[in-house]
Amino acid sequence: xxxxxxxxxxxxxxxxxxxxxxxxxxxxxxxxxxxxxxxxxxxxxxxxxxxxxxxxxxxxxxxxxxxxxxxxxxxxxxxxxxxxxxxxxxxxxxxxxxxxxxxxxxxxxxxxxxxxxxxxxxxxxxxxxxxxxxxxxxxxxxxxxxxxxxxxxxxxxxxxxxxxxxxxxxxxxxxxxxxxxxxxxxxxxxxxxxxxxxxxxxxxxxxxxxxxxxxxxxxxxxxxxxxxxxxxxxxxxxxxxxxxxxxxxxxxxxxxxxxxxxxxxxxxxxxxxxxxxxxxxxxxxxxxxxxxxxxxxxxxxxxxxxxxxxxxxxxxxxxxxxxxxxxxxxxxxxxxxxxxxxxxxxxxxxxxxxxxxxxxxxxxxxxxxxxxxxxxxxxxxxxxxxxxxxxxxxxxxxxxxxxxxxxxxxxxxxxxxxxxxxxxxxxxxxxxxxxxxxxxxxxxxxxxxxxxxxxxxxxxxxxxxxxxxxxxxxxxxxxxxxxxxxxxxxxxxxxxxxxxxxxxxxxxxxxxxxxxxxxxxxxxxxxxxxxxxxxx
Amino acid sequence: xxxxxxxxxxxxxxxxxxxxxxxxxxxxxxxxxxxxxxxxxxxxxxxxxxxxxxxxxxxxxxxxxxxxxxxxxxxxxxxxxxxxxxxxxxxxxxxxxxxxxxxxxxxxxxxxxxxxxxxxxxxxxxxxxxxxxxxxxxxxxxxxxxxxxxxxxxxxxxxxxxxxxxxxxxxxxxxxxxxxxxxxxxxxxxxxxxxxxxxxxxxxxxxxxxxxxxxxxxxxxxxxxxxxxxxxxxxxxxxxxxxxxxxxxxxxxxxxxxxxxxxxxxxxxxxxxxxxxxxxxxxxxxxxxxxxxxxxxxx
Lengths: 536, 299
Description:
Helix content of chain B: over 70%
Helix content of chain A: 25-40%
CATH topology of the largest domain in chain A: Dipeptide-binding Protein, domain 3
Radius of gyration of chain A: 25 Å
Radius of gyration of chain B: 24 Å
Structural class of chain B: mainly alpha
Strand content of chain A: 15-25%
Largest sheet of chain B: none
Oligomer: heterodimer
CATH superfamily of the largest domain in chain A: Dipeptide-binding Protein, Domain 3
Shape of chain B: elongated
């Protein structure tokens, strides 16, 4: 209790002396002096508003992606056009799709001067894959051979058997099953695949607030996490890749991200994220500085697998055809989202846009007819969604569409929070429920595996799995060329849609506003490439 | 004993929150069960509640407030967040006192006149506006349009970063303070002692400043001292809108994530603050009213 008592006593004495010397008290006890304020801001520094950040260790972060992106150079990078390029990797090759040889570019260094070597990868990946470390991006390593033996409370192995070092800049990765999409898995957003220097493992707590990366920007000082201080990055002078055009990135953390919008209006921020419901206002306030970026994520409505009313495929198709996605998009998002026409985001390379066909289009008469053929839909249809995330309007609009166009009784029901949503889902207290998947890399593989296979992390909103689909996915994954893989995923989507297990609703765009100083803002999968921003 | 009882109750309350703490902490992130289990083991969440509580409380006696689910010391968080809340609370408190007392005096002196009524209407109506509406409007006017003050954040330090949010908090205390001061002052002004002083030819300014005002501040001071305790607890909404990393938000996030260690730590510290503000009330009363001081010294 000592710390608290001291603080409290101090506050009381401050209060007593207050009318005389407020400034002294405020200055002494009140000024938290954010870490970034002492750094001189050069002309080519930008300020970015982000939501709260948890960890800065790449294998263990949930919300630090925006900060890590300029701090690390991934092996592979994917730009907004879907163009794949090597960054830290010189080449990633495999003859059979099972064993991959990763060659690193020579002469690249971490911000502490340490060379980026095969060990930097092997050590980081092993640490992330080791179950008892409880790193939350642990699952990204799952395709590598030996992953399963490293899980549980007392795992049999401490290292991935699938990793072996060839020389200082070469290592091989053996996968459990053949997968030609593996290089894409090593791209920007799968942060568990970032390298870590030997210095990191000497003090992981210190590293977590002061990460040493291999990217174009480095930390200027440890992040004041307790005081939610700014995170300030400066260009790393010895970066061997493309040199950035800006000198400094200052991340301001917002408890409530809506405040970042107001700060962007005031010109305090150069880049800020905007909620979908704010599209119309943002367009008016920012004009062409309002930027919707295609994101790799999709929304759908899942059916309660234990509700017999949805057993007939015609009922599921009728519900889907009764939704005017364009109208909902215009009314709720001012047209900033993308009505779904496939199971995966149109942003994915080789995506079969329109494969859902008429069932994802608005055909109210056909929908009514189909529902009548199937014997109608009795009773109330409860659409469960997560309350407090600003999605009330969207789900009410979707429920209204179903009620009006089919003459059924559909209601949108919010949960109190995400934990409550999960509890209600697990208890089966819903008819339809919110489904969402944000892919971490630009391949249809990620969404299809996550949502439509039994072990997928997104399966808890589709409850769909089918051995035929599993086989088709494996076939597409192991296809020798990307083109062949895309054809394979078309077959997967066709097969899944033949069972019509979900109602695809929207593909997402992430919305951003920028200040007048920003000239170009390249992006990857809906997120800005901060390091590649250019100023006017 | 009080301390032990309070921590047990709060710890149990956090434990009783519905939903799994690790799931609540992870939020929307989809994480496999194996990782959730590993996190449960890491933060001893599979132990019985009494074992968890004992670990926590014995840690406190060693000066260790435990860690949150990100593995970071709770003590660090508290010592970083309190200064923000204290700066905000005290600034708001002073504004409330200065404006509230001023409005109270003017109202009392103009009792029954249009100024009295319009000040009443103004303070009550202003405090009826929802706090987030007032916050946003104030940000747009003073931060965006006029550019006088920062929209949000603590980057500019005290006082600039705190003026806007503190003023909004103060508005909500104005009706009570000004009415209490006005009421007591009207009473004192009509007291026989004042008529006596007037009869003795004492100047009106001296009568009001020295004799009336001093007596009229006692009821308001009781309210203000309680209010200070409340202000130092932090405001979730104001801290959120103005992006002030204070203790209110720390508490809010910790409850959402079911972080018993943080919740108990902050709550216990808050109890100490409330105890101290009660002490403050007593001291202030004695300062304002010589009768209290004298009667105490005789006991």
